[in-house]
Amino acid sequence: MNLSRGNIFKPYYFLIPALFLITFSGIIPMGMVVYYSLHDSFPGGDFIWVGFHWFKQLFSSSDFTFSLMRSLLFSFLALMIQIPLGIFIAKKIPKAGMLANIIIVLIVIPLLIPKIVIGHIWSFLTIPQIGLLDYFANLIRIPLELNTNISQVWFVILLMDTWHWTSLVVLLCYAGLKAIPIQYYHAANIDGASPFFVFLKIELPKLKKVLLIAVLLRFMDSFIIYTETYVLTRGGPYLSTTFLSHDLVQTATIQFDLGEGGAMAVIYSLIVILTSYIFYKVISIKE
After folding, report:
1. What is the pTM of this model?
2. 62-92 vs 208-223: helix crossing angle, rounded to 10
3. Does the bond joining 237 to the residue before it have cis omega, within 30 degrees of 0?
4. Domains of the chain with bracketed CATH
5. pLDDT tens, residue by residue, 21-76
């Protein structure tokens, strides 16, 4: 009996290294962040308990509210653009063959580029009289004014994020479309169903869980975006692209305000965790 019980638990022993790694890289740092958020820090390593003072201050701060709203708005716009675009591109890729393989390889390339490089690439594209975006903007007689024009800056950062991350949505949707049994298409063809009807009644329902995963991944990544936009805009013009991630870095590492920065990080984490949990519950629902 003891031998059998030992054999049952033996596979779980292999999880111990992973648990240590998660503890030291995730749980302990997050515990310190929570500790900072409940204290006021002073030079010399002195901490004074202030409870939820920093949280109350953040929720009464218009700067925090606007930064949070900008982050949520950016995520919403990115999803509204990239999810439909990803589905459209995935449907246009051949289901098999050499051409499909070449297209997939080309599509993956933006995902392999580091975020800081993405930011510098797009900053080069917007250099006046040299950048490609500036050239095309002048062709249509709409000169780029990224230092003053908020609408243009948002257009450029959404274009940058779409170029970088739509490939992920395409790959997920393409895999989901390939998993749909061919019999569904044969039945629809026999019934004389239109392509739109096939998409609405066959493909979209079968892609539901894939799309939920795509939305979750894209929301989390777009909501915590920092490097690309900071390199491209430095949060300007007029703080229009200062997202919550920028405020967090500014508060915690530059101003070295550990209490307020910790509270901001806790709120940030709770939003991401709550969103992930909601999507997990929705994905887990059995059809």
Report:
1. 0.88
2. 140
3. yes
4. 2-37 (no CATH), 61-284 (1.10.3720.10)
5. 878 777 888 889 899 999 888 777 788 899 999 999 999 989 899 999 999 999 99
